[in-house]
Amino acid sequence: MQLLTIPTMLTLARVAAIPALIAAWFWQDPASSAWVTGLFLVASLTDWLDGYLARKMNASSAFGAFLDPVADKLMVATVLVLLSTQPLAAGPLAGNAWVMPVATLIIIGREITMSALREWAASMGPAAKAAVAVNAWGKWKTASQMAALTCLLFTRDGASSQLAVAAAAAGPPLLGIAAYLTAHSLAIYLAGLWKFMK
To answer: Which of 95, 115, 118, 155 has the fewest CB atoms lying closer than 10 Å?
Structure first.
């Protein structure tokens, strides 16, 4: 099977976009926020597109299946850490300095825990491995994270338009939903694995 399929190249492009996103974040220019938001939004769309193309073109590969979630987690973790370096700039929680770090700890902590759980479950046999297979909660978790982070990136320098004001108001609640879904999906996986831990 071909290693570098079109879906896999899209995933690799998502990884390669991370340094560009970091550079855009620290770029001292009025267009910085627009570039950061645009890069993240395009990367989020390729997350959907590579999966769609893999199914449509029958171009799935073991390497792509491994790399896709890694790319997602690297991108989300990068944006969470960057947003945690400053207080919220707009919206009802403008000036708040703890919401982003707390959400970052929940989301990144969950991903570290899930990686350890999946590695442990793989050593416990097929039944335990099946208990940590990706489910619908994981997909909703990812979608809510992407939506929240897009809103927060878009308004990191404040909100001067109606669209930005709406994004600033939506960002923190969406982030709260994302953090809840992140923790809830972990609890579901832990519940499914509990019988193997006794």
So the answer is: 95
